[in-house]
Amino acid sequence: MTTPDDKTTGVPIRTIVVQPTLASYRVAVYRELAARPQIDLRVWYGEQKAIRNATPDGFAAEFKPIRTWSLAGQEVLWHAAQIEAAIRDDADAIVLGWNARYLSLAPALRRARRAGKSVVLWGHGVSKRDNFLRRWNRNRMTRNATALLFYDDVNAQAAIDYGVPADRVFVAPNALDQTAISAAREYWLARPDELAAFQQAQGVAGRKVLLFVSRLTPENRLDLLIEAVRLLKGEHPDVLAVLVGGGAEEERVRGLIREAGVEHHFQLVGPIYDQHELAPWFLTAEAFAYPSTIGLSLLHAFGYGLPVVTNDNLTGHGPEIVAFQPDPERPEANGLAYRTEDPADFAAKLGRLLDDRSLRDHLGEGAYRTVEQKYNVRNMVDGMVAAIERGMS
């Protein structure tokens, strides 16, 4: 596996990154990439219903529409921007999302390679619903890429084991920009009276708060958290699960809470997007309780030094799960894993944290170190630059 270095070239590499959206959590990444002297950056992005496009800040960006339709019951896409970037004379390198459902991807890779460009495929390198055909289709595209850029070391090593030359494999550890999180955390920690007033106003003072921050969706399995809290409240009558977020499951979740008789132990506060308003919830909580399919929310919680409890089906989570170290005996531990589909074990792990302040502190310190030392924007961009430079040598 190749690691980034500090080399620079005399002339910046004219680079076009083509992505399906301009997600808010990517803005800081592109801004940092554009600031690197090796890179002359443009970002071309499409649009998806599930993710709202952000405003570009510190880099050149242009909207390029995506066509979507259904083929044999599967969604397929065509992003003409991929092919346009591949044939542009004013681009030395292109970075394309590694998603085989884009029918435009294979021809774009072939054209870019024929044009002698640096061609980076960037993505998970794996599907949550993987099978032989999907792996074959995904892997055959790699022949026309000069570099493969993964979100994590695990899937990068798997590619090498599969036969991809190690000098073509790079890692850009998926990261959140921690700047706003750090500023909000420092603000509230420096004002304990304001934090206490917030807790009083929200009715959470004296409660043992478990926090969930994300959209309320079926795959997040909030039914398991509801059952875990029902089991937990006997020994911890002051437990309170706070759900921050909205979504299609909200009414169903409210109904499940009523059926379980745990209305006193849940508080749904709706979606909050402002980091300053989110911070006191994170700083009030004892643990971040995320039943299933956690992604960037893991790094969000870690930025506040909050230990995470989620299930042990690591392949069912987003790529950020590689940052999760649930063995409490290890110095880098930052959470606890419960047995998948087992609300009793979920309750036991949550109860263990509520009962043991020293364990919470140990895991919380590990959580904060995780994002401070590895899963940050600087390290992510280092990996991106190294992958782009690979095709220019």
Would you mind describing this structure in some detail?
- The protein has 393 residues and is α/β, with parallel strands linked by helices.
- The chain folds into 2 domains: 13-175 and 376-390, 3-Layer(aba) Sandwich (Rossmann fold); 179-373, Rossmann fold.
- Helix content is 38%, strand content 18%.
- The strands form 3 sheets. The protein has a 7-stranded parallel sheet, with helices on both faces. It has a 6-stranded parallel sheet with strand order 12-11-10-13-14-15, sandwiched between helices. It has a two-stranded antiparallel sheet with strand order 4-5.
- Mean pLDDT is 93; it is low at 5-9.
List the SSEs and their pairings.
Elements: E1 13-19, H1 27-35, E2 39-45, E3 60-63, E4 67-71, E5 74-78, H2 80-87, E6 93-97, H3 105-114, E7 118-123, H4 132-140, E8 147-150, H5 153-162, E9 169-171, H6 179-189, H7 192-201, E10 208-213, H8 222-232, E11 239-244, H9 250-260, E12 266-268, H10 275-284, E13 287-289, H11 297-303, E14 308-311, E15 335-338, H12 343-355, H13 357-373, H14 377-390
Parallel strand pairs: 1-2, 1-6, 2-3, 6-7, 7-8, 8-9, 10-11, 10-13, 11-12, 13-14, 14-15
Antiparallel strand pairs: 4-5
Helix pairs in contact: 1-14, 2-3, 6-10, 8-9, 8-12, 11-13
